[in-house]
Design a protein that fits this description.
Blueprint (H helix, E strand, L loop, with lengths): L20 H5 L14 E4 L2 E9 L2 E6 L10 E8 L5 H17 L3 E5 L16 E8 L5 E12 L2 E12 L5 H22 L2 H11 L1 H12 L14
Antiparallel strand pairs: 1-2, 2-3, 3-4, 4-8, 5-6, 6-7, 7-8
Helix pairs in contact: 4-5
Length: about 230
């Protein structure tokens, strides 16, 4: 697997912290289990339930985080059937970088130079981005860990998102503590997570059955789902 290292740009952040580093360190890197019908996935010993599925995007949160406006941990799987080789995968990685840049989202790190002439563009490449959405009109800061790779012959982007809410006088200290303790550990665990590949194989093996069940589960979701996440 090709990984081109680019120096990480670390930034100051503002938000509350949870002591979860040990949970991420103990993450089982064997085959990540998924529900038989794709109704849940497991990351770092936590089960995430499917909340929305539309246009190749699948969004999951843990039990107790059913509110699309007030979640703490969220997994998004984006599948791109139109991406079948390394060059288009590299173009998608550039599109993700452009998405973050255009919205002034702080990039804490990425492992590639976002220029076609400086990217290997191999089909087995893994492109990673670590970013933080820190906007003054929100009451939270959101950490995003995105991996872009081929899964089952097609492109995919998997994102783990964690929010820290700004509550109380010590919110800045708690946020900085979460970032310092968890950011390197979460990134390592997430970029090694193979749940997206397993999910892609499940969809390919039983497309009609899996999609029928997801359609039934998601029929009450409006055209513009409140769970919709970026697609790069």
């Amino acid at each position: 697997m090709i990984r081109v290292v680019l120096t990480f740009l670390m930034i100051g952040v503002v938000c509350p912290a949870a002591d979860r580093a040990e949970s991420f360190r103990s993450n089982d890197r064997a085959l990540s289990p998924i529900g038989e019908d794709g109704g849940w996935v497991i990351f770092s010993n936590t089960k995430y339930f499917l909340r929305s599925s539309k246009d190749g995007q699948y969004v999951f949160t843990p039990r107790g985080q059913e509110d699309p406006k007030r979640w703490t941990d969220l997994i998004t799987l984006n599948f791109y059937p139109e991406i079948t080789e390394g060059k288009s995968l590299a173009a998608k990685a550039i599109a993700w970088w452009e998405y973050f840049r255009s919205r002034r989202i702080f990039l804490m790190g990425l492992n590639y130079v976002p220029r076609v002439d400086q990217m290997n563009a191999a089909s087995d490449s893994l492109y990673t981005l670590v970013a933080i959405r820190a906007k003054p009109y929100n009451d939270y800061d959101e950490f995003n860990f995105t991996a872009i790779r081929m899964t089952g012959g097609n492109g995919a982007a998997s994102t783990y998102s964690h929010r820290e809410y700004r509550t109380g006088p010590l919110s800045m200290e708690r946020c900085i503590a979460w970032s310092g303790k968890n950011e390197p550990v979460v990134g390592e665990a997430w970029f090694a997570w193979d749940g997206a590949a397993i999910y892609a194989r499940m969809l390919a093996a039983r497309p009609s059955q899996a999609e029928a069940k997801k359609s039934a589960r998601s029929k009450a979701i409006a055209e513009e789902s409140p769970w919709t996440q970026p697609r790069g």
